[in-house]
Amino acid sequence: MSKKNKTSYKIMEVALKLFSEQGYYSTTTKQIAKEAKVNELTVFRHFKTKENLFQETTQNYVREVKVDEIVNKIKDNDFDDNIRILSRKFLDLYFYNIKLYKVQMKLADKERKFIRLKLSREIQEVLINYFEELAEKGEISGDPKMMAATFVNSILGAFTVYVLTNDTFTDISIEKMVDEHAKQFSSFYQTKKN
Where is each HTH tetR-type domain found (predicted)? Predict the structure, then answer.
């Protein structure tokens, strides 16, 4: 990695941390520069504006999500196992991106939609393709688009409640909730085996 790339990455790391702690609007480029141990001018040389820094930071973290790789690794397994594995993997993915998620929660609608749509679309597109393949084989019944939306929204919903309540909403662990979701999802959509 070149020195310029290392500096850009460091600035983005710090920006994500500060945006998640203080919110986008309360974080200044001066604070980002200070914590990244660079001159504020360096921040502007790399990103031109605070908004560009924000967009590149979120795009960088969303890009790191390799949803298609997750699905491709499990394709040959049993549907029940796949749904359970996918549920856990997506939950892990949300925890991995928890700073980005916290940033999103503090943003105005326009910026929040940018992040949410980017990550949700990627996940849903991969799931739609996966569910379409299974439907063509007769292994599942249901509309693949609806299945993908339901699947993602259930995991995201459990994660959101977890984040908003600091895990105090229920005494049931988020992992158990996600496992139960996977069990119900697969029993609802899987065609009956003879």
Answer: 5-65
